Amino acid sequence: MDVGSVTKKRDIALAELAAAENTAAIEAVRVRYLGRNGLIPALMKDLKNVAPAERPAVGREINAFKKTFTDLLAERTAGQAATRPPATASGRLMFDSSLPGVWRQPGTRHPVNRVIEDVVDIFSNLGFTVADGPDIETEYHNFDALNTPADHPSRDIQDTFWLDDKYLLRTQTSPVQIRVMERQKPPVRVIAPGRCYRRDATDATHSANFHQVEGLYVDDNVSMADLKGDIAYFARRLMGPGVKVRFRPHFFPFTEPSVEYDFSCHRCNGKGCRLCKNSGWIEISGAGMVHPRVFSAVGYDPDTVRGYAFGMGIERIAMIKYGIEDIRLLYENDVRLLEQLIG
């Protein structure tokens, strides 16, 4: 890149801008040259590769290019504004009946919001209310009160976004159950949907920012049978009446006993397909009976109360329910994805 090449690009850009016939064409030229991936920012970025002796002159030419282009852009934009339909005496714009009609594509709810609303609706029928908590949590609420040992890997900076020694971006919505139990005596029956944050490398199934929904039911006579019945009811309401649920032993610091639960694949009815990796089952999340130490941390008597807790990833449910194979599609703001879900 040298002064001459920059000058040549400037002349081409000014000619294109001068030839633009309407507002849309002017905007297209603006984006081409001043947008995030436009030519002028690219020239600025490439300046570091110019020979040191030529760099000052080339830099001045790029700045002159930008100023000249920006000045002409302002002039053309103002000229287009002046040609808009005149206002009437009442101050309203006159309607130009010769303009073609514009189809306004109807919008729809985002898949993540749809699943959250569905989960809230289903568990509301079981007597659950919605609880909320802060995204910025204390170490105590996110780990200590949930019986997570000091040497647990989830506390490492490789897994958690620490803000300082005591505060972090919550890694799960489970801290909400601690906050609820701290201010409310049993019985407690809440669900807590919300954002979570973990240092996960982004790929087709993982994101550093995601959504979970936590469920908590505490009373004097809650059992694993209650957990299994409520999760089975939820699965049938969400995925269809033929969906089955299976529970597998697992370990979580804040529940004992702990389980992971799977739904039978609603696409192949458990026969095996690409969605369920030919297993007939789709892993959903974890659950279990609230650990006595968690009850002790919030001032409950673990000898007189029982409770269960469960959690699930909203994005995972959305991907399964709507057949989305890459979690990144949920965050790329591609309207085509939402258009497929209208209805």
Describe the structure.
- The structure is a single chain.
- The chain is of the alpha+beta class.
- Helix content is 37%, strand content 19%.
- The protein has two domains: 3-82; 111-339, Bira Bifunctional Protein, Domain 2 (BirA Bifunctional Protein, domain 2).
- α1 (3-19) runs parallel beside α4 and α5 (111-124) crosses α8.
What structural keywords apply?
343 residues, alpha+beta, BirA Bifunctional Protein, domain 2, 2 domains, seven-stranded mixed beta sheet, two-stranded antiparallel ribbon, elongated
As a percent range, the share of strand residues is 15-25%
> Any idea what the radius of gyration is?
29 Å
- CATH fold-type name of the largest domain: BirA Bifunctional Protein, domain 2
Strand order of the largest sheet: 1-4-5-9-8-7-6
Calculate the mean pLDDT score and round it: 87
What is the oligomer described by this structure?
A: single chain
Query: How many separate helices?
Result: 11
Q: What would you say about this model in short?
A:
The protein has 343 residues and is α+β, with helices and mostly antiparallel strands. The chain is 37% helix and 19% strand. The protein folds into two domains: 3-82; 111-339, Bira Bifunctional Protein, Domain 2 (BirA Bifunctional Protein, domain 2).
